[in-house]
Structure formats: C-alpha cells, structure tokens
Amino acid sequence: MDDERSVHFGGHVVIDGDRIAAVGEGRYAGDTAGAEVIDAAGMIVMPGLVDLHFHTAIGKGYSDHLPLWEYLDECWYPLIRNLDAESAYWAAAASYLEGIKSGVTTVNDMYRRLPDLGRAAVDIGIRAVLSNDVALPEHNLDTLQDNKDAYDAVHGAGDGRIQVYVGIEWLPLASPELLRDARLLADELNTGIHVHLNESLTEVEDSKRRFGRRPTEVAYDAGLLGTDCVAAHCVWLSDTEIALMRETGTHISHNPSSNAKLGNGIARVPEMLAAGINVGLGHDAVECNNSGDMFEVMKFASLMHRAARVDASLQQAPDVLTMATRNGAAALGHETGYLAAGRKADVILVDTRNVMFTPLADRNAAQLYSHLVFAANGSAVDTTIIDGNIVMRGRQVTTLDEATILREANAGFRRVLARIS
C-alpha cells in the first residue's frame, strides 16, 4: 500500500520492536540470529485495517429494526446510560476482539466510560483512539469535563497505543456553543475531534429548523472542523458542505453498511474523493451493522456506489483497500497504513489457501486486490500484529481469553438490560 502500490511476490517484512525495519523482495539478507521467523507462505502480508468510525457495542441484534432517530432513543441511549464499569470493559473487549480477528489493528471508538475502554484496549493489545459521547447536559450522556477527565486518565496508555479525542455525539443533542467549547478543549489538550455529521435527513432538517443552517455549516462556523477532525457518515452533504470539508482538511469516515441498514442513504463518496477529501472506512457499531468485519465494509464501499450510479468504474479494489488502510491512518495522524521501513508495525497476514482466494493466478496483483475487497471476509486473517506484538496467531488471540470475553460480554448485556427493563 505504498505510493507505487508495490506487491512483492515472495518477499519479506522485518519488524524490530514496534517498527518495521525492512520490506522487500525475496528472503531477508540481514542477520536473523535470535529473531522469531513467521513462515507466511501462501499468505498476504499487508497493513492492518483502520476502523475509522467505531463504537464499542453491547447490544448487537437487540431492537435493531428501527430507523436511526427512533433506534437511538429507544435502544442505544438507554443501553449506554446504564453501563457499569465491568459491562463497559467486556463490551469493549468483545468489540475489539471481533476487530482483531478480522484484521483491524486500529479503532476510532466513540463511546462512554473511557477509562474502562482504555483498560480493555491495553489488555487485548489493540491501537485505540477513544472519544466520549458528549452532548448537552439535559441528554444525560457525557460532558466535556468527562472527556477531559478521560484524557487525563488514559491518554498515552499502552505504550502510547491509546489516545483520547474530544467526541461530539451529534448536532441534535448539541449546540453551536458546545461545538465551540469542544474545539477549545481539543486545542487545549492538543488532541483531535470525532463527530457525527449529516448522518440522516432528519438530522439535517433538525439543524435547519434550530440553527438556520445545515450541520456541517454549523460545525464550520463553530470552528470544529479541521485537519485533526474525523467527521463520521456525512451522508447528506451539500456541494457547499463538501467544499467546507475540503477547505478545512477535515477527514470523513464512510460507513456504508451502517448507512444502508439504518436506511440513511448513500454518501456522495465519488464527489468527496473528487474534491480531494481524505475518506476512510468504518463499520460504525454492530448494533447498526451487526458485523465488525471491515472486509465486508470494503465490499459495501464499492458495490453500493456502483449500483446507485450505474457505473462499474467506481471504487476500484486498490482504491477501497487504500481507504481501509492508508486513508484511515492519515486521518488519525498515525504512522501506520502501509508497510515501509520506519513505520509502526501494525501488520496482518491473510491466508489465501482457501476457497475465497481460489482461483489465484501466479503473480497477479490485480486479482489479489480483487479477492481482498470482493471475495474475502475476516475469517481469512491468520495473524494480527499490533505495535510489533503478535496479538493473534493462527486465529488464536494471544492476550485475553476469548471464551472469558464472550461469557462476560453476555453477562454484561444482561445486567444492563435488566436496568432498563
């Protein structure tokens, strides 16, 4: 995934500590005495996937038949208002487990109880950018003070793998003044911003009614947008709003599977890309997607636009894979996203010895890209390496016990459900 989109057929990747030391053709010619050697024959060695819009999830499959606004009020908000520390920890562990098992090495996670999420991220070994669900006080979610406290508690944990951004839930629960204060806090902490914008038509109409402007216009006027800001969804951007995103260098997370399931529509990704906006990919939450598999998201991110525009030239496989790796890393300012000496060692091994990658011609890069985006799913990921640490090998997570995570996540969901019943 470098600038030339190099593919080495029979090559090597050398990791020293948390960095990539060498990448190239053939066997490594340097000294390997004392090194651990992973035989990757029959596998694709590639950068880990970056899930640019992610929510820890506790209630997959629960009351998920509703459109966005009704779903939030009847299901999502009651669940996250009733989290306890252990429920949050194990929900995060289960969410991060699903990511790791499908090749995700970085999550941009907006949720609540960030110290508990931070513990889970450190323990399981994932790279995580965490942000709070900040809203106006009457909505009984998080405040900017909660976000500052979370920054003080966990930013920089896990040898720097854990970062804390300032999060804004969405404009229907916010105000221009809150957006301005969020920008001031982010600047004070020298950190980034994560916000939902223009996700649904009802959100756009609410913003026009309350503020006389569309959501992205309100965010722009408040100074919220910028090169340190990730705006999620952006399904209903006007031409003016696309221009504002371009002007400010704001990054967009495209979440096609979630947008489709919630009936929110199809984002204008071709126009965003044509404007030069950096667009990454996210799965959103398994409550409104039911899968954290980023391979599935990649497929949606191509097919949806081809179908809607009746244009098979859109969203070619190498471009989509770039969105899931390099673009997401760039949005977060991370030294990940492609394999090159000096970059952070977030690397996955994808096994091609299965029907998903059959047939496979010899030394055919285009076919490899095609299989990765259109044929594969996360079960093809054999090994996940994050910050130079092997966190999954042979599909077995090496950090936390998977059976314990699943058992405790189920128990946590039942405790939260009992509080809202």
From TrEMBL:
Residues 44-391 form the Amidohydrolase-related domain. It holds the Pfam family Amidohydro_1. Keywords: Hydrolase. GO terms for molecular function: hydrolase activity, acting on carbon-nitrogen (but not peptide) bonds. It comes from the Bacteria. This is Amidohydrolase. The lineage of its organism: Bacteria, Bacillati, Actinomycetota, Actinomycetes, Streptosporangiales.
